[in-house]
Amino acid sequence: MRELYDVIVLGGGPAGLTAGLYAGRSRLNTLIIEKGQDGGQIAVTDEIENYPGQLAEGESGASLIARMTEQVRRFGAERCTDTIKRVELEGDVKKLSGAKGEYQARCVIIATGAVPKPIGCENEEKFIGQGISFCATCDGAFFRDLEVYVAGGGDSAVEEAIYLTRFARKVTVIHRRDTLRAVKSIQERAFANPRIAFMWDSVVVRVDGSGLLSSMTVKNVKTGELTVIEADKADGLFGLFGFTGYRPTSGLFEGMLEMENGYIKTDENMRTSLPGVFAAGDIRVKSLRQVITAAADGAVAAMQAERYISSH
Ligand code: NAP
């Protein structure tokens, strides 16, 4: 018979890893299923400065995640790499079917996070990997001494723009309003950086090039004016990084769980609308999406799962 786990955690970002850590520590028979590498968004974040106790200058998301992963391993949670395609979450035994196998558990903790939203311009798909990127840590070095543009005005856009100045000779943030959404301390660093410029009230409406990205049309949303930006002739291309927010990875649960704009609704104990199903981290409806709140959700979800199991 297939093993019946106490808890299956879906997702290996800070929420999922913390849930796995707490469940393992409670001696629950726990399996963490992650489709790719651990870490989610944080794995590609260059520097974490606001996780409590995080004082090591320049510590990356990847190194924080590596420590979390090791801690989870020590507490005994099992790991598996698979992409879950179908779930049955009603009833006392929850069933999950993946590309590699079938899994079952008494509780499921959904920590599948969110993925970057597209920039939303014409021709975008054609230039992903050919000048358009959603990961500065992964692709920033390709743009050494070139010009780079960043779409967005939140924490991610501004932090990653600062990071990109390590490589690019100039970074221009294209933001649809005239004030940034990013937290003030991040804004201050960006405004003080001579290699960062801003295009206010603007959005990218179209990208072009023969093969590589070398031209784009930017619209001023107040005046309607269109500006065509061409790559410097000697460069032949420029980079465009999209940081216009994230989309929840919740398609698998549509119609099964209560949601709001694709985010899973929970109570303060991370309980979803189905018994024995919990959600933690960026996937759920919440006001602050950070590593600290994801980790806290994971801890609460695991402790509630333990309570659920002992009362059933
Ligand atoms: P975000 O806070 O949702 O910001 C998205 C930005 O993109 C906003 O400035 C938004 O403009 C803009 N935008 C959205 N849709 C757009 C569109 N269609 N066209 C052009 N611009 C568009 O996303 P985020 O910066 O990725 O952050 C996500 C979460 O992670 C937030 O909770 C953030 O605080 C957190 N985070 C924290 C840190 C940190 O603590 N160090 C770092 C990164 C992210 P408007 O401002 O006009 O809405």
Report what the structure shows.
This protein has 312 residues and is of the alpha/beta class. It contains 7 helices and 19 strands. It has helices at residues 14-25, 61-74, 124-127, 136-139, 155-164, 184-191, 291-310; strands at residues 4-10, 30-34, 78-81, 84-88, 94-98, 102-110, 114-116, 132-133, 147-151, 170-174, 196-199, 202-208, 215-220, 226-230, 239-242, 246-248, 259-260, 263-264, 277-279. The strands form 5 sheets. Strands 1, 2, 3, 4, 5, 6 and 19 form a 7-stranded mixed sheet that branches. It is elongated. 41% of the residues are buried. The model has no long low-confidence stretch (mean pLDDT 95). NADP nicotinamide-adenine-dinucleotide phosphate (NAP) is lined by residues 50, 120, 151-157, 159, 176-177, 181, 203, 243-246, 289-290.
Please describe the topology of this protein.
Layout: E1 4-10, H1 14-25, E2 30-34, H2 61-74, E3 78-81, E4 84-88, E5 94-98, E6 102-110, E7 114-116, H3 124-127, E8 132-133, H4 136-139, E9 147-151, H5 155-164, E10 170-174, H6 184-191, E11 196-199, E12 202-208, E13 215-220, E14 226-230, E15 239-242, E16 246-248, E17 259-260, E18 263-264, E19 277-279, H7 291-310
Parallel strand pairs: 1-2, 1-6, 2-3, 6-19, 8-15, 9-10, 9-15, 10-11
Antiparallel strand pairs: 4-5, 5-6, 7-16, 12-13, 13-14, 17-18
Bound molecules: NADP nicotinamide-adenine-dinucleotide phosphate (NAP).
The site of NADP nicotinamide-adenine-dinucleotide phosphate (NAP) has 20 residues, from α5.
Written as H for each helix and E for each strand, in order along the chain, the element string is EHEHEEEEEHEHEHEHEEEEEEEEEH
Q: Characterize the overall form.
A: elongated
Work out the strand percent: 25-35%
Indicate the structural class: alpha/beta
What's the main sheet like? 7 strands, mixed
**Care to count the β-strands?**
19
The chain-level mean pLDDT equals: 95
Please bin the fraction of helical residues: 10-25%
Cα end-to-end separation: 21 Å
Radius of gyration: 21 Å
